[in-house]
Amino acid sequence: MTVSTRAPLTRPADAASTAGAEAAEIAPKLAGADFRSAWRTLLALPSVSAVMADSLRGEVGDGAVVNAVGVIEGLGRAGVPNGLVYALTSQIFGVQWPLSASARSPLEPYRDGLLDGSIVLCHALTEETGGSDPLSMRTAATPTDDGYRIDGRKAYVTAAPEADLILTFARTDAARHPFALSSFLLPADRPGIARSEPFAKVALPEVPMGAIDFTDVAASDADLVAAEGSGLAFLTSTTTWERALLMGYAVGGMGATIDRAVDWLRDREQFGRSLGANPLVASHVADLATIRHRVRTLVYDMARRIDAGTAISALATDAAQVKISCAQDLLAFESAAAPLFGARSVIADSPHAGQLTTAVAASIYAGSNDLLRVSIARDLGLPVEN
């Protein structure tokens, strides 16, 4: 990981407000747009374009990561749909930054397409038989005279139906040990690669999810992200980045929900007075603000530590704790917010529709919370196994 010596970028409050102002006009149009159109519109915003460029340089240390979190917060606060903000956050932190920080810089040939949105990335790890136990994966890269032949199926992959470039992992050794996996970056139009139709999902619907089949796919050494056998180590890097920062996608949306709640409760009258004048109701809004503050503080703290040059490998356990805490807080937030809007929170086309299923999903993606708890306990010294 390279630490930049450039002058610090804008403060997070500035980044969030700037991105929010840019996104305010386009946000209502994104809700009903197809993913590819919405993606390219989002990436055309100057703040987002700058963050994409920073992530593709792979450098930290100049406030770039904190600035990226600020931009993402601003997009959510402006009303950009949750699924799009999630997709952007996942691609930037879970794929682009760790790949660009790697020694081979494999994304460089695709830089222009990634910047303008004509190339979409996906991170294909999970299989039908599991995701949190990568050493159980069945996708295999069999050595050949000129490289490898990859066979297998990846499931529940964010952006898979639209992906042009696939970061995937395959077994290069049949044994179960830390050097059994390798990571590959493959174009989706490589013969033998087939992407599924989008799954019908009830969380983060603005970004598609699907499966990817690999059937006798030819891969060369040039397709390896790093040396053969280093796939688990690289996976640890991508998941640590993601667990540390992915929940930043929710910070802006939580702020927007609080804004709507304050407006609604101030204007809505019941029993001869504003609902917001009721101390019990007001305390619930205060709880929402407290939860959001906690999530925001944790994510920005991780961003600052990465910008300070802390090795990603040293953040794995802290990142897992941040992910668990923020996921639990998001569920608590949505559970507390929904009753404030009454029946409108369960009407699909209401501006106050709740996001409970999206909040539940947070305990599943980027490593299930229960398995992360086992890893944390093991790191603390307990003799616990998965």
Overview of the molecule:
The chain is an alpha+beta fold. The protein folds into three domains: 2-116; 121-230, Butyryl-CoA Dehydrogenase, subunit A, domain 2 (Beta Barrel); 234-379, Butyryl-CoA Dehydrogenase, subunit A, domain 3 (Up-down Bundle). 46% of the residues lie in helices and 15% in strands. It contains 13 helices and eleven strands. It has helices at 12-23, 27-30, 35-43, 46-57, 64-77, 82-101, 111-116, 231-245, 249-267, 279-307, 316-337, 356-361, 369-379, and strands spanning 2-3, 59-60, 121-124, 140-144, 147-158, 165-171, 181-187, 193-195, 209-219, 269-270, 273-274. The strands form four sheets. Strands 4-5-9-8 form a four-stranded antiparallel β-sheet, with no helix packed on it. The protein has a three-stranded mixed β-sheet with strand order 3-6-7. It has a two-stranded parallel sheet with strand order 1-2. The longest helix has 29 residues, at 279-307. The chain is globular. The protein starts with a strand and ends in a 7-residue tail after the last helix. The mean pLDDT is 94.
